[in-house]
Amino acid sequence: MDDWLCDGPDAAAHTVVLAHGAGAQMDSPFMERMALGLSGRGLRVVRFEFPYMQRRRESGMRKPPDTAPKLVNAWREVIDRLGGGSRLHIGGKSMGGRIASMIADEVGARGLVCLGYPFHPPGRPDRLRVAHLKDLQTSTLIVQGERDALGSREEIDGYELTSSIRIAYLGDGDHSFKPRKSSGRTYDQNMDQAIAAVAEFVVG
């Protein structure tokens, strides 16, 4: 586990495993703030990087993410190394959470946390990524900015999602949870709300 980042007490009752989004590493400001915020609430937080991001870190070359099967296998390996899904809440930012959602039922995860779920590619609301979310059995929390360009509140209201999914909306937040100044909300408020929502969900 030398290639992972771990925060919070080793003996914590709850462990949350977070994967990064498509373009940012596991120690990005967003991931760092989320991990420290959750660990500050007594949770153990484990962060890891997909193989393509590890290669980018080593070479400095920005290449696109691995194929979905490779990303799924990376998640399986991490879960196995941590003792199995029944002990873990899994998820992550954008793509990291989406890939986790694809195997959450398979690995028997205690719960799933998606931080800005990419319901569709940017500018392509016709290419939905919700088919597997109609039958997902794992208890799930999706934290979503109200005006996320990859799935806004207005769009999500029209999707058919399983009852195991709960969505916590962040006021005027974009895909990174940042609101516009004109909204009266601040980024700090949205991040604090997101951290609180995840912690409450995990602890139950």
Indicate the proportion of strand residues: 15-25%
Largest sheet: 7 strands, mixed
The SSE order reads EEHEHHEHEEHEH
pLDDT < 50 runs, ≥5 residues: none
Strand order of the largest sheet: 1-3-2-4-5-6-7
Instruction: Tell me the number of structural domains.
Output: 1
Distance between the termini: 28 Å
Keywords:
204 residues; alpha/beta; Rossmann fold; seven-stranded mixed beta sheet; 7 strands
Layout of strands and helices, then pairs:
Blueprint: E1 5-7, E2 15-19, H1 29-39, E3 44-48, H2 51-59, H3 68-81, E4 88-93, H4 95-107, E5 111-115, E6 140-145, H5 153-156, E7 165-170, H6 187-203
Parallel strand pairs: 2-3, 2-4, 4-5, 5-6, 6-7
Antiparallel strand pairs: 1-3
Helix pairs in contact: 1-6, 3-4
Concise description?
The protein has helices at 29-39, 51-59, 68-81, 95-107, 153-156, 187-203, and strands spanning 5-7, 15-19, 44-48, 88-93, 111-115, 140-145, 165-170. It has 204 residues and is an alpha/beta fold.
